[in-house]
């Protein structure tokens, strides 16, 4: 997505080749952390931090750079780089607001890395929500098994689709 100075937005879908898309799907685990967020004002507070905190502004610039590199890594199928950039994003996101992640979310992130995940992206604004975990296909089963033994959260089945989001309930 490109956000232009005049307020327009241009959306350019990434056209991943079939092999890359399949490998991404096979190397990704979706995990619902299962904890409600502690601070409903995370986005508002982060916006305030952007107004006057140089450290937060720098972290935001690094997030933007990581996103651009992430796109290039996806397009070239560089999954090692994808994992590295997911972790860079996480570290920089933590710099933007001290309440961006709950202790439970940080613990779940670290647990996933210790059990086979190579990178993670947190979805949502606060202490709960979903984690998109990236792993090597050889470690996928180990990661899922470890996550399923946790007291909180659950692994969520998913499939990539080309036309947007499909939701269903079993």
Protein model, in words:
The protein has a single domain, classed as 2-Layer Sandwich (Alpha-Beta Plaits). The radius of gyration is 17 Å and the shape is globular. The protein is an alpha+beta fold and 170 residues long. The strands form two sheets. A four-stranded antiparallel β-sheet has the order 4-5-3-6. It has a two-stranded antiparallel sheet with strand order 1-2. The chain contains six helices and six strands, in the order E-E-H-E-H-H-H-H-E-E-H-E.
Q: In whole angstroms, how far apart are the ends?
A: 33 Å
> For the CA atoms, what is the radius of gyration?
17 Å
Shape verdict? globular
| CATH homologous superfamily placement | GHMP kinase, C-terminal domain
Q: Report the strand count.
A: 6
Essential attributes:
about 170 residues; four-stranded antiparallel beta sheet; alpha+beta; two-stranded antiparallel ribbon; about 15% strand; Alpha-Beta Plaits; globular
């Amino acid at each position: 997505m490109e956000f232009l100075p005049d307020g327009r937005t241009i959306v350019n879908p990434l056209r991943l080749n079939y092999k890359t898309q399949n490998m991404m799907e096979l190397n990704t685990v979706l995990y619902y952390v299962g904890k409600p967020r502690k601070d409903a004002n995370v986005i508002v507070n982060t916006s305030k931090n952007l107004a006057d905190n140089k450290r937060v502004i720098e972290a935001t610039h690094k997030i933007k750079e990581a996103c651009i590199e992430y796109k290039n890594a996806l397009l070239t199928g560089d999954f090692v780089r994808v994992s590295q950039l997911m972790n860079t994003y996480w570290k920089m996101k933590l710099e933007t607001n001290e309440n961006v992640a709950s202790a439970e979310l940080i613990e779940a992130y670290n647990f996933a890395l210790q059990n086979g995940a190579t990178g993670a992206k947190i979805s949502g604004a606060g202490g709960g929500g979903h984690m998109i975990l990236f792993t090597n296909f050889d470690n996928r089963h180990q990661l899922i098994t470890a996550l399923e033994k946790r007291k909180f959260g659950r692994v969520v089945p998913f499939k990539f689709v080309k036309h947007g989001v499909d939701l269903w309930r079993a």
